[in-house]
Write a structure and sequence with these properties.
CATH class of one domain: Alpha Beta
CATH topology of one domain: NADH Oxidase
Bound molecules: cobalamin, iron/sulfur cluster
Distance between the termini: 65 Å
Largest sheet: 4 strands, antiparallel
Oligomer: single chain
CATH architecture of one domain: 3-Layer(aba) Sandwich
Strand content: 5-15%
Radius of gyration: 23 Å
Shape: elongated
Amino acid sequence: MTPDAARDAILAAARRHGAHRVATLPIEPPRRHELYRSWLARGEHGAMSYLAEPAHVAGRGDLGQLLSGARTLVVLAFAHDRGPPPGTTLAGLRGKLARYATGDDYHLVVRDKLQAIAGDLATAVGAPVAARACVDTAPVHEREWAERGGLGFVAKNTLVIAPGLGSYVLLGELLLDLDATPSAPAAPPAPRCGACRACLDACPTGAFVDAYHLDARRCISYLTIEHAGPIPRELRALVGTWIFGCDVCQEVCPWNAGQDRAPDRLPARDAERALPDLVMLAGLGTNQLRHYVRRTALRRVHRAQLLRNVAVALGNTGDARAIAPLRALLAGPLPLVRGHAAWALGQLGRAGILPDADAILARAQAIETDPDAQAELVLARADLTSPGRA
Ligand code: B12
Ligand code: SF4
Ligand code: SF4
């Protein structure tokens, strides 16, 4: 097959399998690798230690290491549904999920699509084609390659914005051991944010150090998904009711206004899923929770992490209906969750919603055996009498 025919076959297969944007590129060195290394050197990846492992860093710097004989990189963008619009209200106390997580887990869905594209290509070539599919966790500078493929521009919020689709797109790549003529533009698209800085100003936790520069350690997406331990106390109130990811820096972006019309978006489930009932989630047993998260991105966090997030969100509702589920979590088997439930009850106490908060926390303190949860109880009780922000 000629390189031109290979390019045409790749682009056609990608469109058949639902890619909204696609490009073929030659295997070249990345241009922002040093920038990535300096981000790691500053520790801004936090506890995502896999990002700094030597094999991961080396793979990002040299795509050839990911597939021996790699000659073509295919970059793809898949738009996903946005679920219920901001401001949608449902009865009960509701948490919020990042929109990308409201359907089937894209790691599975996009991987299957990439494998199907590789399969179609092998059929077209009439011989096996070595291929490696990459989605999110592989050592690939996904945004740089998407930008160099012309799929969109890297914006100040660090996301790739595909004009016509916005930023609610997920990226995937296929490495192939065949030659395909590049379809990418000669120069990547320039940033098109202009003077806007809405995302930088709207971030609830102040995670942007500057335009194009995010300190992951402060990002709600990191805190609720990637970070397994206690959420830093000074950030808990700022997390609000996000329990898995965050979309604030996308919700405010003018490039996302009125652009939800692409056909065949990766589908979301219903509003019940996107805005889950926090009281229901707090009450799920281990097996029920396993069933609830099946095939969704939520399966990627441990039960203790999800209930930790639910406890923080309940504390941030400022609503008396949060008291009973929080007291149940405070009496539960997971120390991390007990600690965050203590914080949350302390918040309700400070807000005047739970006048006997100190008595409840004192009783829990008397029987608490875990040192970290014990420390949380001490601080939660101190919050009740301190005038400043908890
Ligand atoms: C680690 C990671 C995170 C971390 C850190 C995010 C970050 N901004 O670095 C955390 C957990 C916080 C996170 C959050 C989210 N993530 Co994430 N994440 C990743 C991952 C695995 C690596 C990103 C990385 O290497 N970061 C390190 C920095 C240094 O690298 P970078 O962001 O790519 O660097 C860009 C900028 O630094 C930029 N740059 C720097 N200076 C300058 C200057 C100028 C002028 C320009 C133009 C650019 C520029 O250049 C780089 C791009 O080439 C990628 C998948 C992958 N393998 O790439 C997904 C990925 C970036 N995440 C994704 C998503 C969807 C999200 C969330 C939206 C999820 C959510 N709703 O909760 C949030 C968005 C938060 C945000 N504003 O970035 C998508 C983004 C899709 C898109 N449209 O861009 C990706 C590509 C996964 C995928 N396969 O689709 N994520
Ligand atoms: S995802 Fe949320 S917390 Fe993270 S940078 Fe964007 S607005 Fe800030
Ligand atoms: S909100 Fe403004 S600055 Fe931020 S990504 Fe969108 S256009 Fe760029």
